[in-house]
Specification:
268 residues, alpha/beta, Glucose Oxidase, domain 1, nine-stranded mixed β-sheet, two-stranded antiparallel sheet, 7 helices, 15 strands, 23% strand, binds acetylphosphate
Length: 268
């Protein structure tokens, strides 16, 4: 074998799955249509002459369900998308031709995990906790990692453990931990390619505040052109204390969509 990449993968690679299983009834942002999966045709509904039969199912879904990526077209501010594109004019025939999810290149990049509760010596962060710039800098230093331009940085709060509890994961009365506008500005200044978290809205949701205001979304998607990945499962990386990895993510190539469910992998 002469290709060094093929040599490196010859024995198979160890991967950590960062995606959630898509299931009807999983916790869901109130801002988005739900995920539905039905089985219109079961085995036996149509049988071939030789006794063979096929089952066929169907999904009807919002694009921001389960682990998903936000395209830049997802958020506008004062009628403008990233780079000053006019949000109205960017939508042709119900498709965001500008900044839709089809414009996101497959991501094969250096990935970093910032494990904030581990850095702070806590099991998990509390609902509504704001991950400050000091937390981010302290965690980067404690983990001895360096954030480089083009990286994908994933922020663990521990809140992801609540995914299977349903409504508790979405926050509501408790809020959800995460970075705020200031943290988003700091991370954007490091020129990262994408940011992700183990929470439903990536950023901090105040107790009782719901999803009414999402300032970090504005900073990242509209002002900085940085993609956001939500509802990641970061427990596997945390358990193995993996802070640096090869990050792989390929959004569905849906023309003009504002987001896509994804199944990202950390190759370690
Ligand atoms: C939420 O804000 C809840 O998710 P998204 O960024 O996909 O809209």
């Amino acid at each position: 074998m002469t290709n060094p990449l093929l040599e490196a993968v010859a024995g198979g690679l160890h991967t950590v799955d960062l995606g959630r299983q898509l299931r009807v009834g999983m916790p869901q942002s109130p801002n988005h249509p739900q995920f539905w999966h039905t089985l219109p045709r079961r085995h036996g509904d149509m049988e071939r002459a030789d006794g063979g039969s096929a089952a066929n199912d169907m999904i009807t879904t919002g694009t921001h369900v389960g682990t998903h990526i936000d395209a830049l077209a997802h958020v506008s501010q004062d009628g403008k998308l990233y780079g000053g594109a006019d949000a109205g004019a960017s939508c042709l025939g119900g498709k965001y031709v500008e900044h839709g999810v089809h414009t996101i290149e497959p991501m094969l990049r250096r990935g970093l995990l910032l494990d904030i509760p581990s850095y702070k010596g806590l099991p998990d962060l509390e609902g509504g906790y704001e991950i400050t710039i000091e937390d981010l800098k302290g965690c980067i230093e404690a983990q001895s990692v360096e954030v480089r331009p083009g990286d994908v940085v994933l922020i663990r709060s521990g809140w992801g453990k609540k995914f299977d509890e349903g409504a508790a994961y979405v926050g509501g009365p408790t809020g959800v931990p995460g970075i705020s506008e200031a943290g988003a500005q700091y991370l954007a200044s490091l020129d990262v390619h994408a940011l992700g978290a183990d929470t439903i809205a990536f950023e901090m949701l105040p107790a009782g505040g719901g999803h009414a205001q999402l300032p970090a979304h504005r900073v990242l998607l509209v002002e900085s052109g940085i993609y956001i990945i939500e509802a990641l499962d970061l427990e596997g990386l945390a358990e193995q204390a993996i802070h640096e990895f090869f990050f792989v993510l390929v959004p569905l190539n849906i023309f003009g969509a504002t987001g896509s469910p994804v199944r990202p992998l950390a190759v370690v």
